[in-house]
Amino acid sequence: MRAVTPVKVNGQQTAINIGSGEFLTIIAGPCVIENRDLTMRIAEQLVSICARLGLPLIFKASFDKANRTSSGAYRGLGIQEGLAVLESVHAELGVPTVTDIHEAQQAATVAEVCQVLQIPAFLARQTDLLVAAAQTGAVINVKKGQFMAPTDMQYVLGKLNGARPQNVGARVLLCERGTFFGYGRLVNDMQALPIMRSFDAPVIFDATHSVQQPGGLGGATGGNREMVWPLARAAVAAGVDGVFLETHPDPDTSPSDGPNMVPLQNVERLLRQLQAIFELSTTW
Fold first, then answer.
1. pLDDT value of residue 168
2. Model confidence, pTM
3. Of 77, 127, 200, 274, which is most buried by a Cβ count within 10 Å?
């Protein structure tokens, strides 16, 4: 794979380096925070799995899903209660955390708790949001818009790098999560992965949002979780620095993105496959 400058994410106990010469980083967790107990249970199991495999983990969960299809859909616990849960994950389990921000005024508050701020795909061109996130000095995981060409992400990267504090090193991860293919379907062009890595930024492949079917359930987003496995394997073989996936003990009961999620009991098997492919691909 083409060399890229590693990005450092500080955890409670150790730092994670994402980029050339490093391990495959896993960003995983439930789509949305339902309650503290369930979130901690998922986090504990993911920490245990990644520890067994020797893979670095960043725990992901959203305090607010501001982009739901229907106004009646569950959005989350909100910023105050949600950040309290994420703070507990970081403090008690020692892993870095990431969550979405949707408005510029959320950036500084969330950066006090989470080590990584995530920019949703549909906001990837929102300049004020990008600038506010970068100015916190936190690591930014920005998802490529479903409507954007991979080459367009160089301009997103430019906005973020131009706004970060002086004397702060590389702090941006670029995340691929599929491209619109007509109505209600996404496809993945694996060429996007090396193209985005050519901008000297680590690339993350979002395996679960890539199988979404936007609006596929009428007032909710559908998906096909069976396609997570082949897409994730293909992306790791093509060359990425990390894999993003959402998981739940019982995805069919999740209030958000259930059809796309990997059941928690299957995560270790999937990660073992991805780890083996990654180790082969980095020797080519």
1. 79
2. 0.94
3. 274
